[in-house]
Amino acid sequence: MQVYNVVKFKVKPGQEGAFLDAHRDGKAKWPGLEHGVIIRTGDQTFCLIGTWSSQDALVAARSAMINTLDSFRSVLEDQGSGRGVTDAVSGEVVLAL
Q1: pTM for the complete prediction?
Q2: Are 58 and 3 in contact (CB under 8 A)?
Q3: Distance separating alpha carbons of residues 55 and 24, to the nearest angstrom
Q4: 3-state secondary structure at position 9
């Protein structure tokens, strides 16, 4: 069953380019990632949406994803409520539309 992950980010003012550059040129080619996109959801907010072949593939890539996050963590704002600089969820597809 296919798995998706969604990570919400709030970027500091003026840092949108640095945020996007941190994912360009293969920097977000994590092992097991089938397809990924970043969408703008507001003035300073973005979501990364990844497609994975399995939950195991997603779990195996976590350390690589954290390494990427560490490279641009300084351009992110805290999400509040104890979430830190990301708000991430993932799960298996239960219905394809």
Answers
A1: 0.92
A2: yes
A3: 24
A4: strand
Distance from the Cα of residue 1 to its chain's centroid? 20
CA–CA distance, 44 with 40 (Å, rounded to integer): 8
d(CA 79, CA 53): 28
Q: What is the pLDDT of residues 50-66, one digit of tens each?
A: 999 999 999 999 999 99
Q: What is the DSSP string of 16-80?
A: HHHHHHTTTTTTT--TTEEEEEEEE-SSSEEEEEEEES-HHHHHHTHHHHHHHHHHHGGGBPP-S
- Report how far residue 28's alpha carbon sits from residue 38's, in angstroms, rounded to the nearest whole number: 11
For residue 90, give the H/E element and its range.
Answer: strand 87-92
Task: Please state, in angstroms and rounded to a whole number, the distance separating the CA atoms of residues 42 and 17.
Answer: 15
Determine how many CB atoms are found less than 10 A away from the CB of residue 3: 20
